[in-house]
Every structure is written in C-alpha cells, then in structure tokens.
UniProtKB/TrEMBL annotation:
<keyword id="KW-0575">Peroxidase</keyword>
<feature type="signal peptide">
    <location>
        <begin position="1"/>
        <end position="17"/>
    </location>
</feature>
<keyword id="KW-0408">Iron</keyword>
<protein>
    <recommendedName>
        <fullName>Heme haloperoxidase family profile domain-containing protein</fullName>
    </recommendedName>
</protein>
<dbReference type="InterPro" id="IPR000028">
    <property type="entry name" value="Chloroperoxidase"/>
</dbReference>
<dbReference type="GO" id="GO:0004601">
    <property type="term" value="F:peroxidase activity"/>
</dbReference>
<keyword id="KW-0349">Heme</keyword>
<feature type="domain" description="Heme haloperoxidase family profile">
    <location>
        <begin position="101"/>
        <end position="354"/>
    </location>
</feature>
<dbReference type="GO" id="GO:0046872">
    <property type="term" value="F:metal ion binding"/>
</dbReference>
<dbReference type="InterPro" id="IPR036851">
    <property type="entry name" value="Chloroperoxidase-like_sf"/>
</dbReference>
<keyword id="KW-0479">Metal-binding</keyword>
<comment type="similarity">
    <text>Belongs to the chloroperoxidase family.</text>
</comment>
<dbReference type="Pfam" id="PF01328">
    <property type="entry name" value="Peroxidase_2"/>
</dbReference>
<keyword id="KW-0732">Signal</keyword>
<keyword id="KW-0560">Oxidoreductase</keyword>
Amino acid sequence: MRPSTVCVAFLASFACSFPWLKPEGIETLLNHPEAQAEITKRLTEHEAIHANQRETRQLNTGLVGGLVTLLDGTLSAVLDNVLGLIPTNEAVKGLKRFPEEKHPYQAPGPTDQRGPCPGLNTLANHGYIPRNGIATIGQINAATAAVFNMGADLSSLLATGGAIDGGDIISQKMSIGGADDRVGVLNGALNKVLGTPSGIAGHGKFNEGDASATREDFYLNGDNISFKPELFKQLHQQAISKGNGTYNVDAIKEHFKNRYAASKAANKQFYFNLPSSAVVMGAYYFIPGFFSNGTIGAGGIANEASITSFYGAKPTKEGQWSDPELTYTHVPERIPEQGWYRRATPMTIAEAVGGILDVYLYALPPMGGSGADQSWVVGPANIPNNPQAFSCFLYNAIYANFPSELFNSVVLVETVVNALSGLIAPGYKALGCTVNFPDATGTGVSQYDAWSKMYVGDAKYKATGSGWYKTT
Ligand code: HEM
C-alpha cells in the first residue's frame, strides 16, 4: 500500500511526509496525558522502593562477566535512571518453575502463525498468547513477563514496533509470523484495498533483520522465518569451542561475528542498520539472557536442554552433544519438559542495551547497507559506547525510523501518536534521555531530515536492502 493512498483515505487533514511528527510534534506526544500518567505512576512506585533493596536486586539481574566489566562504573547510574522500571519485591519472589499444567504444549496447526522469534513461538505453543499466533501488544507484554520475565519497557518497545510496522495499530494486533488476513483494519476486512500487514517477520523494518542467529536473510531465498539447522549447528560449535559447553555470551558473540561476515558476503542486499540491527544483536543476547535455566550471571546456565528445546532444535543423534559435527532437525519450540526455571528479575531495556553493546563492541559490525553497484552506504556515525547514551541513541533511531515505514500498516495518526506516547515514550523519558526530537512545527521537515540522518544515516534511504517499503 502506498502512503499516498492511505493518507488520502484516512488522513486528509494531515501532512503525510512524517505523519506522526506533523503537526502534533514530539513535545505534544510527550505531554500526552497517558504518557504523563504512566511516568508519574512509575516515578511514585520507584520512590516507594527502598534504595538498598533496589540495588541488591538489580545487581543480581545476572549481568554476565563481560557485561559487568563493560558496564562497570556506569551500571548503577544507568539503573538509577531507569525510574519506575525496577521490579517490586513481590515480582521477584524466588524462581518460578515451568512448564505449568494449565499451559500444556501443543504443536501448531496448519493455519497457526509462527515466525522468526523462538520466544514468541514458544509462548504460542503453550497458549500463553493465542495459539493461532495472532496476538495483541497487551497479550505479548503479559506473556513475555509471565514466562520469561521480560520487563514491560522492553516488551512494549518490541511489541509496539511489531504492531506499528507489521500489524494493525488500531486493534494493536500482529501476526508473530508472516502476513495474515486476520490482521488489519476491521480484522482484515479492508486488506484487499489497504494491503495486508506483513507480520513481525516483515523485513527491512524495525524488528526483523539480516545476520540472524538461526534464520537466513530475507534476500537470499525470501524465507527469513524458518529455523535453519545448519546455522544452529554453527551456534552449537561455538557453544563447544567458546562457551565452555554452554550457549553463553561468549558463544553467541562469536556466532554473531561469523554470521555478520557470512551474510554480508552472500547477500547483495545486506542491510544492517539501526534500529533493526540492534534488535538482531539484542536477540543474540536473548539466547542466554532469557533461555538460560535460572538467572543468567547468578547460576543460571544456557545449557543444551534449555536452548535446544526453546529453539526446537532436535539433534539427529542422542548423546552426541560434544560432537561438533552433530546435525539437527526442527520441531516446534517448547518449554523444556524436564523443568526449567525462569530468571529472577525482569530484563529491562537497560540490561538489553548492555547486552547489545557487548555483542556490538565484540564484533564491531559496520552499520549500513549495500547500495547500488556493490557500494556500501553508511548508517549513523558516532554511535555512543556507554549504555545510557546508547539507549537514548536507540530511542532516537527508533523514532527516526518509523515514519518511513508506516505506510505498510494501516495507520491513523492519532492512534499511532497515542500508542507511541503510552507505550514507548515513558521508557524514553524514564531512561533519563534528553529529548531532542526536532520541533515538528515550522521548519520541521528539514530539521527532521538532519535529525534522521544523524540517527539512521543515509543507509536507511539509500541502501537497496532497506527498501521494500520505499514509496516511489
Ligand atoms: C516482546 C515481543 C517480541 C517481539 C516483537 C520479538 C520479535 C522478534 C523478531 C522480529 C525476531 C527476528 C530478529 C532477527 O531478524 O534476527 C526475533 C528474534 C529472536 N527473538 Fe524475539 N521477539 C519478542 C520477544 C522475545 C522473547 C521474550 C524472547 C526470549 C524469551 C525472544 C527471543 C528471540 C531470539 C533468541 C531471537 C533470535 C532468533 C534467531 O535465532 O534468529 N524474543 N524476535
């Protein structure tokens, strides 16, 4: 669907260039009553928690060795700024054991959507989100918190991105796989006219990107959803050689470094740019960060049983785990039958960003994308290398990124503004970021261009692989 059609149909009174930036503007967005209420609520909750308890719990979030070193002195500063996103004592009482009887595993049926995310696939296979793989932001937030202890700030960011880019922001629904006619305005009734939202697997947008751990690049054969046993085999080899026999942070970092190099070499439309590249690198950290049995860094281990079960990686021979040539097939993802313990504390954006930085600084992958004639178009310059500044940079990159992509979901401006205000802006403010969006009034568009260039660079608009959403 071309933006002009959407705009004519729905947004007659709004300028279409940057729909949610004009005329409302970011200040308006941040002054939105829902965002204000949320920030105030979280600040009050934060103040109510005793400082000592807060520090002890957070320092036990399981930040692994390398990450703790990386964060070092900035760790408490970052956490202190995550106002209101720190869990209460009630939320972290001991470790919870899974699977739960009332959420039995069930393989997906032929019309059920499954996608590139083993976490969401697992949640659907156990009925924590609808088994058909069509879920709302709220359902995803609740399920990721219940089973994996994902912080509300982090799940809101990912799920809102999924709904804006690949779903229907009005009903807040998305397919956790590919395009599906059950998603869209009026439950998809208008999709013939307006186009069908891509699902979270939609490539070149906020969530799905190249150089993934176990999925191929979209450009290579159009399938960025299926689990690729050969890629899991490579990950397994890193677990043996780098991870002391586990899928720890060292193992996943080395796997990412290799995957980036291999993808860039094979994919003529390779695209690895913020913010989607951060989602890809974050997903690498999620492997030990969420799938470990127990809390990462506090005795939890990303062991074979856990990782293979959540990934649905079935070894072709039993008892041969130490063989680097061991091969795999794929079965539906499930919570380890033998029993598995959820991490003790929520993974907030601060931890995830620390994980992304750890992966990034290890591999130092150039940000950008392939342009015409084998050229390389660069992404943003001057990416900060401390977690808080990097978090704020990412938020800006996310805001800079969305306007170019909105056409593919059917969007009413006010709805998007409300969604961003309620679900994303509180996290932005809570991290202590300086809000430096261009003022969307007056010379908004030209300011927006410079601002957008700073945060997503030329690659967003000029790299060939970034542009299945391009409008011309
Ligand atoms: C909160 C909503 C979530 C959304 C919208 C989401 C979406 C996605 C998407 C689009 C990808 C593909 C990224 C790529 O191109 O590499 C992905 C990958 C991944 N996600 Fe999620 N995810 C969510 C939550 C989770 C959770 C809770 C976990 C773990 C418990 C998780 C674990 C992973 C992992 C490990 C990958 C990498 C898959 C691979 O091997 O390639 N995600 N996710």
